[in-house]
Amino acid sequence: MFKNIIHNKMTVVGFSIVIVIVAIGILSPFIITADPMEMDLYNVAAPASDEHIWGTDELGRDIFSRVISGARTSLVIAIVVVGIGTVLGTLIGAVSGYLGGLTDSLLMKVMDILMAFPTILLALFFVTIFDPGLYSAIIGVGLSSVPRFARLVRGSVMSIKEKEYVEAQRSAGERKISILFRHILPNCIGPIIVQATLTMGNSIITVAGLGFLGLGVDPGVPEWGAMLSDARSYLASKPAICIYPGAAIALAVLGFNLLGDGLRDALDVRQE
Amino acid sequence: MRYLVRKILSLVVVLFFASIICFLIIHFIPGDPAQAMAGPGVSAEDVEKIRVSMGLDRPLVEQYITWMGDIITKGDFGESLINQEAIGPLMAERFANTLILSFCGIFFAIIIGIPFGIVSAIKQNSFIDLATMGFSILGVSMPIFWISLILILIFSVNLGIFPATGSGTVMHLVLPTIAIGLNSLAVIARMTRSSMLEVLRQDYIRTADAKGMPYSTVILKHALKNAMIPIITTIGIQFGYLLGGAVLTETVFVYPGIGRLLVNSITRRDYTTIQGCMLVITGLFVILNTIIDLLYHYFDPRIKKA
Fold it and tell me: ipTM score of the complex?
């Protein structure tokens, strides 16, 4: 397996990007050169200088420090989103696939209804109900990732539960729940990891989109999408404010997408 | 045929529940729906007036039937909470604009994406192939709103060729079309390439080629025709994504579509308009997905979908 992963150059590139972004996310307080929240109204939209290597934004905040801190914001949000999707989706998919019958039909219908809403629309739905903010964004994007996990796990569980070794456990009198968690689910881990990696990339883009619409994180918090939105009016006079946060989003998403694609090939996972 | 009936039944069920969810938005908001609709700082008397005029004092089921009934029979989505304008006609106009933009976007993605995908497949590992693949990987990673800003920066601010915002002329459509279509272009090019590679390996292609047929005929008539199934499905799925992307693109370019109407309504807490926009976008999205499933089934009956 690891031979396969190393074999593919693009996967290595993706993996390296992810490592760098995660490292930046963890170490951001040590990398930044200024307080990302601190405004300096005498030094608004300043060009790059020794003090501010990428210049300052429309409120005089250091762009470099804000982009670096943004990595942590985006990663934390994406991890929570993927957590919601993985846990809920795996549970629903496992129960659905293992029990079958009416439970399966009902749960899958609920998933169909959830999938009726495009991701950003579901997020906007929660923004409408609970007011714009971090939690609405996380719940919306997280819930919209659940059906994909559920369908994936359901499919794997359905094929694995017919295998002989599961049959053996069943005839040995092991309890259903223990068969499911100890013998079936561990064998579905490959597809789940691939889906989780790809969902990381998608969540980063969607959450940044909400931030861009002004419906994401609270004002002032260094978040890439919101930074791009604030920078819009300075597009002509100071394009740098728009370039860096966008490039950061693209790089992070690229990393997770390449890694996800590579893992899919390495783990030999089929996708719908 | 049985598949068709089952799919349409399923469509109706999903649409029904989705419409209930859209309807319930007002009731999901923590607190009193009439108060939420009235907004802050309104007297208790006025809140009561709104409760009665909006029918919020009646049972939920009755409210839903009235709301949905008016929409189905009269195309009446109610009135905006902000300016008491009828939502239906406004939404129809905005929705038409969004459809124009989406069609332009998907058309742009198809006419560029498919040829590049074909050339990549024929000349595998050539410069064009590597460039197309590199672009298709980058293309899906770039957020649509960032692409939009960069397009404005290059073509409006620096070169001054296209207007940055607004609508009304063909020139206004160019940048939003590229912005909204670029992600799909990347996906379609990649899908075309891998589907063509798969087909080109088949024996009948070698036979056709060996018969001395012109290579262009082999590629376009024999190979592409058989490679189209997954490409058409991809196009359908991408068209669905465009509807979500429209929310962002329309906001950047200040384009009067339904996505921008929705975002503006959310910031203004215009709940009746939000309900209408959500219902229309979701409805189209669900219908579209059903059509894709049916097409897929039609083109390749071997696929048995659970």
Answer: 0.84
